[in-house]
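Following up on my earlier thread - several people asked me to post the actual chain instead of describing it. Fair enough. Here it is, all 220 residues.
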Amino acid sequence: MLERLNKVNDVKIYSVFDAEFKSYGRIVGGYNFAPLVEYMKSTPVPKQGNIYVASVPEMEAFAVKEEVESVLYGGMPVQIGYCNGRNSTYNGFEYHKGSEINVAVTPFMLVLGHVWEIEDNKFFVGNEKVFFVPGGTAIEMYQTTLHLSPCKVTDEGFKDVVILPKGTNTPLENKHQNDDSESVLLLQKNKWVLAHKDREPLVKQGAHIGLIGTNKELYF
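Reply from S.P.:
Thanks for posting it. Predicted structure:
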């Protein structure tokens, strides 16, 4: 599949198993994510767009949550949810203060950048890298990694288990800006966003327009 993706796209598609991924994250092993993957069989893929659920009690009831909290997150509480959809464009970037774990129920692509590549609250298209994540792969994306929704590699769309520090991507009380220039990027709890001007849902939420260039589409 990776070979085909590179034939039909005008940007290089790497694998998360390539050395280029090392500054963005790592492959995660040693955890029994199988119950989460099995649960995901019952979750829908919307006909258009994406659906994101930050916290699913049924998923958080599996024993792997406690193991992830105690070891992978060093005793910190987490939430387990999912993102399913049919996205195929860049749309923007987000980042969190804390790693994000993704378990690829299906294969998909991720568009990634580094926080240190943000200049004056702008990220310029061309500085990103695109990675293919095979189905069944679990990855950790470091808190310095810019990312957003996966991009589909089949007509059926994608399914992705998402594990984050508890409360991430939920409504933010007392949202305000201060003299810290980063504060204009804060959109939800533990969620800083640079949106592309053409990504209407993010712009309507009040996201800062900070992804500059073409809102590229990825093909399969």
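The chain has a mean pLDDT of 98. That should answer part of your original question.
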